[in-house]
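Reminder: ligand-aware prediction takes two inputs, not one.
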Amino acid sequence: MKSIKWPKHSFMILAIVATWIKTVIVYHTSFDMKIENAMQQFILFINPLSFLLFAYGLALFFKSSKAKNRYIITVSVLLSIVLYGNVAFYRFYNDFITLPVLFQTSNFSDLGTSISAIVNPWDVLYFIDVLILILANKYWPRMKTIVKVNVEFRRAYFVLAVAMTFLNLGLAEIERPQLLTRSFDRELLVKNIGTYNYHLYDIYIQSKSSAQRALADGSELVEVNNYIRSNQAAVNPEMFGKYKDRNLIVVSMESLQNFVINNQMDGHEITPFLNSLTKDKDTFYFSNFYHQTGLGKTSDSEFIVENSLFGLGRGAVFFTHGGNTYNSMAERLGENGYYTNVMHPNNKSFWNRDMMYQSLKVDKFYDVDSYKVNEGEAVNWGMKDTPFLEQSAALMKDMPQPFYSRLITLTNHYPFTLDPEDVMIPEYTSNSGTLNRYFQTVRYMDEALKDFFQSLKDQGVYDNSIIVMYGDHYGISENHNKAMAQYLGKESITPFDNAILQEVPLFIHIPGAGDGKEMTEVSGQMDLRPTILHLLGIETSKDMQLGADLFSPEHEDFVIFRDGRFVTDKYVYAGEACYDKATGEEIDGEPCQPYADRATTDLENSDAIINGDLLRFYDEKTGNLKQEAVE
Ligand code: GP9
Ligand code: MN
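Here is what comes back for the chain with manganese (II) ion:
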């Protein structure tokens, strides 16, 4: 029988096709990318190709068939690792990997039980192309034939690869203008240029950002400073300094969204204690308050609260810019006689906290080593909230006063698991185990917070303190939209709904205040720094901060998200569309435009400060450039 005539370079072609098809299947099965039209579908289909043509095409430079095949298999292994790494990361963070996150290996080793929720045996299928290539190389003699590559063929091949790249970029530009210059969103990048090219792009951006710092000088700060000065909200004289010298206790409530507050799940109250605070005369409850975090999650929220600046659109600023100069809330309080500390029973290097807290001038970090984790007191990510908060209150008793303690809870964290003895309400029933369990861990945290208030009283630090509690970021990602829609009794979750779901609760509890109430201004985490410092009688008019005092009559109903979405009292901008806030209906974009421009300016100014490490040139005493920077 005459054997079939296989084209030359069959092994390379097999590799390209296998990895290409696998990548496209993975796009559809493992990532939740919103595809709106046939063009987007087509771009998604072709986008792995340009990179694969180059990566595998280098095989054409190898002389021996053995070396060539070995090279091809190696490339397939590396690309599979990259793709699978993204899949695993996505399951957890609902986002694609960016370079700086890879350097935080300590974070990955700490994931603990989360890893088992993320990885499963079927994942070997992500390496199927490698397997095919190994088998073909071994058992398919044709694959070993030595093929001499002539120069013309090679040239033609790379011309094709370049053409493919331009076709891809061209279509992407039509579909999403300015994609590569704006790049707020990793998903858009992956959708348009493919996961492999996205990583090349990411490497380029990261190296650019280290260059940016080297190139920045004080002059950039002048413009940013003027902008910030002209947008300052005046203090409210009735509130300014009203609680001077009180201790400050700030609690970051892990993954707590506002939709559970004053709500029920199958007839069970989810947050009875927090609900009681919403009606409490010593508490200001902010019901239109939003998180403003990005990929840095908890660490971004910490960054925002401390600095009243945004985290970055790429990576976690705690990692990428942990060595910058900042003018944090901790530093400001420290200058005013406060003993400043962060309490979080986790490994100190997680999110690079140990490094970053030095830059933020936090006096002491009570990490896991400061706690006694007894048997049965660890679940999921580490120490349970109840013993953590109880021991923290005991530690506060011995702190020099006034103190500023920032506490970060942990139990209400994905994958939202509890020991049976801590379960207080049943699971919800939907297609999302994550959402089903979420209600239970939220209920647990609520109880832990109630006990914490009691511990503060028992330790005698309650009366002379202000207790601020806020949700750090969302807990339920868009991956669970279907279950969320079911719970909220909606047909589906629109981009509008999703923006509103970024609301997190904020409580400012002031023992003895008496004038607490629900506050409805549209606001965000950025506003905490000026609000808190003003209550404690500390001036911030010269600080480089983007937020505004929540008690100021000039506070504007306007909150900007890290990804460029925003919410005002009238409009919501999400998914590149403008919505009427009252009805949730999409409207003409015109009324959103001025806000969109300001959102861009705010984000750009914040990025400029961080990327250029500009605060190293700033003298916050005078509100001017440092003398050295001017010279
Ligand atoms: C880790 C904790 C959780 O120490 O703060 O971090 P997150 O995953 O929510 O960013
Ligand atoms: Mn968190």
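The first strand starts at residue 247 and ends at 253. Residues 297-299, 346, 350, 408, 410, 413 surround (2R)-2,3-dihydroxypropyl phosphate (ligand 1) (CB under 6 Å). We will return to this case in the review session.
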